[in-house]
Design brief:
alpha+beta
């Protein structure tokens, strides 16, 4: 570390933030766990361990001294006042200090559970807990104090150690500059070392000018004064909730569908042609079950007309708004989000008399080249033992769902873990570190490469309740000049703003950094974005290392998909697929 350059950067930053209305903090970054000396009541000093990141309010900092160690200014002593303004403390950083920054602290969400003030984790993703919520905006955003409800959320992500949350407020409220809404989500980004893959996808939805783009804001979350980590505040997908804000008068004549192989909503159906797992998302269905069933059937019949046109290669433009679908696919294409082929987390909506529009975009954990860590249970059990486990699991699935056919892409709690049925006697579960355990005998890792085509077929072709997402989207776009014209326009809209994209990318990474560094004092650097072979040199398992991997992967992805001769990376131009000929069975 160069002493002069660090001081100069600190001085410039301090001057820049001095005139700001925001609360300014001194952020201290180190290469190792920091040992600090604090005065104790006996007149001596007590050593304690801090994490890799420390943050001190600037209005409490009295002085900063840099100390030489082996002819290098790598130690630092900070004298500051406690918040009471009386106690004076000295922190001596004995390990290498790599960087100082001055800036606002990330927004803080403090949840207190009056009924259980010792609770350390939300236990359910079904039942809400009543909470008192205080938000510290640090002068950047408005503070908030009021009541809220909080519960867990997510499908596979709910089984990982760091939980995601859903918030419900008593009335529509504007938080962190978002549109007023009652419902928000706090994404954990547990498998994303960069903590910003979903934020990058949200940025793309804005630049490509989707009708209802996403927004993201890094925040620190506390539950009963326990620090839970860095989270990402985002809108909850839905109608008239800060997400899809169609006119209120049209809401009763509108529908939002979710297509997802979790297939876990009360109103759901496997569509007749592509076996898509179609579910009701919004607005609220009629309260009477018989009326709700008839209402949903009416809307699914409408969807089936569109699906039939797709399957038969007819003029799909009579049913689907190509402009919004094109923007939707630009987002998925840039991120190489393969969830579209499963399909999972796919949303579309319609108002009577209008066309289907795709969006909002959602769920970009498994994208940008991410590849999970796989292991197989067969390494610890014999074939005979494995077969017994399978037969036992199948009995439990049949007891819960009636048949293995109905159990496809669904799960049971088996020996304390969620066990998913993938078809053909293949099962999958998660361990607490987020690794996929595939059994009985084998597994294959899959990473969406930067030079791979977005749309494929046969990903979930099956005879079960859901599948054929790849066929559905491929049948819409292939050999479709009208759609490709809309896609070209949407791509050019994004690419004309490429400088804005990279500037916003860097700005978000910088804003997130203090929160990310603190997050990794609680959640270790276990996960990183997987890279393709020529990115393996970027194996720095730190926050900034993960950001660089993400940046390099995106640059290569952009270069690959900007070529019209490659159908902009949507599907392989060498394929022999023809509209209306793909399998729907």
């Amino acid at each position: 570390m160069k002493f002069r350059s660090l001081l100069a950067a600190a001085a410039i930053a301090a001057a820049a933030f001095g005139a700001s209305a925001q609360d300014t903090y001194l952020h201290i970054y180190t290469t190792d766990t920091v040992t600090v000396k604090e005065p104790n009541q006996y007149g001596g000093y007590t050593e304690k361990q801090l994490g890799l990141f420390t943050s001190i309010p600037m209005n409490q900092v009295d002085s900063v001294r840099f100390l030489k160690q082996k002819n290098e200014f790598s130690r630092m002593s900070t004298r500051y006042n406690d918040s009471d303004g009386k106690s004076v403390r000295n922190l001596t950083f004995l390990n290498k200090v790599t960087k100082l920054t001055f800036g606002a602290n990330p927004v803080e969400f403090h949840f207190t559970i009056p009924s259980d003030p010792t609770l350390e984790e939300v236990k359910s993703k079904v039942d809400y807990l009543d909470a008192d919520l205080k938000i510290n905006g640090f002068g950047v955003y408005d503070d908030f104090a009021g009541t809220a409800k909080i519960r867990g959320r997510g499908n596979s992500t709910w089984n990982w150690a760091k939980k995601a949350y859903r918030i419900k407020l008593p009335e529509k409220t504007k938080l962190c500059g978002f549109h007023k809404a009652k419902n928000y989500v706090l994404l954990a980004n547990y498998i994303d070392l960069s903590l910003m893959r979903n934020a990058v996808a949200a940025l793309i939805t804005q630049l490509v000018e989707m009708p209802y783009p996403l927004h993201a804001k890094p925040v620190n979350v506390y539950l009963n004064n326990n620090y839970k980590g860095s989270y990402m505040l985002m809108e909850k997908v839905g109608i008239n909730n800060g997400s899809v804000n169609i006119p209120a008068a049209q809401e009763a004549e509108s529908i939002m569908f979710e297509i997802d192989t979790n297939f876990d909503e009360d109103l759901r159906v496997a569509t007749p042609k592509f076996h898509l797992p179609l579910m009701h998302k919004d607005p609220d269905a009629p309260a009477d079950p018989t009326e709700a069933k008839a209402w949903f059937e009416n809307w699914t019949n409408d969807f089936n007309q569109m699906e039939n046109a797709v399957a038969e290669g007819k003029n799909i433009g009579d049913y689907i708004d190509y402009q919004t679908l094109a923007k939707f696919l630009v987002v998925y294409n840039l991120t190489a989000n393969q969830e579209i082929n499963h399909p999972k987390s796919i949303y579309l909506y319609k108002t009577r008399g209008e066309k289907y529009q795709f969006g909002p975009c959602w769920d970009f954990d498994w994208a940008f080249g991410y590849s999970p860590t796989y292991r197989t249970a067969s390494s610890t059990i014999s074939n005979e033992e494995g077969q017994k486990l399978i037969e036992d699991a199948k009995k439990q699935f049949i007891a819960q769902y009636g048949s293995m056919n109905n159990a496809l892409y669904r799960y049971i709690w088996y020996n304390g873990v969620p066990l998913y049925y993938m078809g053909n006697d293949d099962f999958m579960s998660y361990d607490q570190e987020g690794n996929w355990v595939v059994w009985p005998w084998g597994s294959t890792g899959y990473a969406p490469t930067y030079n791979g085509y977005l749309l494929g077929t046969g990903k979930n072709v099956g005879t079960g309740t859901a599948g054929n997402g790849g066929e559905f989207f491929m049948s819409i776009v292939m050999n479709n000049p009208e759609f490709m014209a809309a896609y070209k326009e949407a791509w050019q809209t994004f690419y004309s703003k490429i400088d804005t994209f990279w500037a916003a990318f860097d700005a978000y990474a910088t804003e997130l950094e203090p929160s990310a560094e603190r997050n990794h004092t609680v959640w270790p650097y276990i996960y990183t974005t997987a890279s393709d072979n020529d990115l393996e040199a970027y194996n720095d398992k730190t926050y900034r290392g993960a950001i660089e991997i993400l940046r390099q992967w995106l640059k290569r992805r952009i270069e690959f998909i900007k070529d019209p001769a490659k159908n902009y990376g949507l599907y392989d131009p060498a394929s022999t697929y023809k509209r209306g000929t793909l399998s729907t069975k």
